[in-house]
Amino acid sequence: MVRFLLRLVAASPRALLRLDLISQQIYNAGALSLVIIMLSGLFVGMVLGLQGFQLLQRFGSEDALGTAATIGLVKELGPVVTALLFAGRAGTALASELGLMRATDQLSAMEMMAVDPIRRVVVPRFLGGVIAMPLLAAIFSVIGIYGAQLVGVQIMGVDSGSFWSQMRAAVGLRDINEGIVKSCIFGVTCSLIAVYEGYYATPTAEGVGRATTRTVVTSAVFTLFLDYLITAAFL
Amino acid sequence: MRKSRTLDLGTGSFVLLGFAALFFLTTQTTSRGISLASPPHYDLTAKFDNIGDLKVGAPVSMSGVEMGRVTKIDFDWKEYKAAVTLRIDARYNQIPTDSDASIYTQGLLGGKFVGLTAGGAETYLKNGDQIAFTQSAFVLENLIGQFAANFMKGNAQSDSGKSKTDAPAAAEPKPKEKTK
Fold first, then answer.
1. Which structural domain, as residue segments, surrounds residue A217?
2. CA A15 – CA B7 distance, rounded (Å)
3. What is the pTM of this model?
4. Fewer CB atoms < 10 Å away: N or C end of chain A?
């Protein structure tokens, strides 16, 4: 899989010239995942607001809700949940699409026409996912913070000034940075796994199904595993 | 052609939205914030000996009604005091000039806020005025220190033989802080 990644990276500069292909894949992976990302972000944020409020209230420090929700969302939940949803929404689509192309000999047909399928088909999908993922994670975090604010401030009555000011005092650029680094790495991981599984799928109906399943499972496990590693590296 | 246009539009707006989200995260949730346009207001300053952990953005209230926010915390090198700028909502423009400002804590461990107590003067504070009477933040450690010092002094005077019991007794003052 590492060799496959290197092949993709090597083919990327040439593929970057075909911006229209990449733009289409960003649309597929990103813009079409927007609804699920925003809805999930909103509800995750609202749950964080509710749970955080219940917990912090015991210590009389509800004001720290903004900090708790933001740190939780930006550093962990944003990148991780987005990566999981991304693997489920965009990763499976990529894997099954490529797998089906393989099964129906479209990839071989391209090779026959001297079109490199890696450059024409795989790399744009990979890059589209890599670009879309951090943006999706950022949108997820922002909507999540809004959701926490909605529950904490509007419903539970935390002071909005304390909510934002304590958040601003406690959240640093470093935290945001950690979130961005994580989402970029998850974007590479999930996209790579999806195109790899699809590209090397057994060219049967069953093989495509298995490739799709394995995309989700492997992506989820790798995401959580890498999450731990990156968190440890950032400490 | 038509399809590719909606597609480009979709991609473009998605990327824009993503970068807007990143921008929001870096500016609005961290301390390098750019604050949004604020409603009509006027600024007052107050100098405190000690502001504890008062933060920019903390509420300013009178009788529990929120009237504004702390917008700036500076250090005054002439008087060696903390200079706090309070941004008061323009609706509350009748704060007497001899009002005093104190720093209180929300809850036991909550954040600090500035509480104003109205004075009796007929004239009102205007933009740029300074609140003359201030009371510093209540710092728990100082109070415990003072209490412990007094307690030990009292203990030593009343009974010098039992000085070994100081340690368990020192834990006692804490509940008393709550009532303050």
1. 20-234
2. 19
3. 0.68
4. C
